[in-house]
Amino acid sequence: MARPSPEELRTRAESLEESCRQRGERIEQLERKRLSAKMKYVGTRSPTSEIES
User: Taking CA 15 as the corner, what is the angle to CA 32 and CA 6, rounded to the nearest 5 degrees?
Assistant: First the structure.
């Protein structure tokens, strides 16, 4: 098996880094959406029903 050139490795690492960063941003957005949805959900419920459940 031929060893990839340092240049090839560098570009591969950069594209990997980029895709990881994009995935991280996407996950962050999802987390934020989930959090805000949870806050809305908690806000609609009264504190008393929260204690009972």
Answer: 150
Rounded CA-CA distance 23/15 in Å is 12
Q: Distance between CA atoms of 9 and 4, rounded to whole angstroms?
A: 6
The one-character DSSP state at 37 is: H
Distance, in Å, from the CA atom of 35 to the CA atom of 2, rounded to the nearest integer, reads: 48
DSSP assigned state of 7: H
pLDDT digits (tens, 9 = 90+) for 3-19: 889 999 999 999 999 99
The C-alpha atoms of residue 33 and residue 27 are separated, in whole angstroms, by 10
Statement: the pTM of the whole predicted model exceeds 0.70: no
Tokens of 16: 């990997």
